[in-house]
Write a structure and sequence with these properties.
With about 100 residues, this protein is an all-alpha fold. The protein has 4 helices and no strands. α3 runs antiparallel to α4. The chain is elongated and about 50 Å long. The chain starts with a helix and ends with a helix. The relative contact order is 0.08.
Length: about 100
């Protein structure tokens, strides 16, 4: 069973991510961006992902550490979306099967 605050956190993060993307699109959809600004905007989702998983670096929970290793491996091989999807599934499975 998912914790109420975890669910609200995930929902809030999804909302903020969506609002960030739609606001950027609405403000910049008919403007030509310089390459440097384009690179900065492309890096934002990765930065958000790192901000979410960074606290796991300080844990001693084996399931979280394994999930972190899987996420880092996936991030070096795949784009953001498959990395996030597979990492979430791996984290859920590891937390379910590996007790604290």
């Amino acid at each position: 069973m998912i914790d109420y605050f975890v669910f609200l956190t995930i929902l809030a993060m999804a909302t903020v991510t969506y609002l960030t993307r739609i606001t950027g699109y609405l403000l910049l959809h008919n403007k030509v961006l310089n390459p440097r600004l384009s690179k900065v905007l492309e890096a934002i989702p990765g930065c958000v992902l790192i901000a979410v998983i960074a606290p796991v670096f300080a844990t001693t929970n084996i399931a979280n550490l394994l999930a972190l290793a899987i996420t880092l491996l996936l991030a070096s091989r795949f784009s953001l979306l498959p990395t996030v999807i597979i990492s979430i599934a791996a984290t859920a499975l590891l937390r379910h099967y590996i007790p604290y």
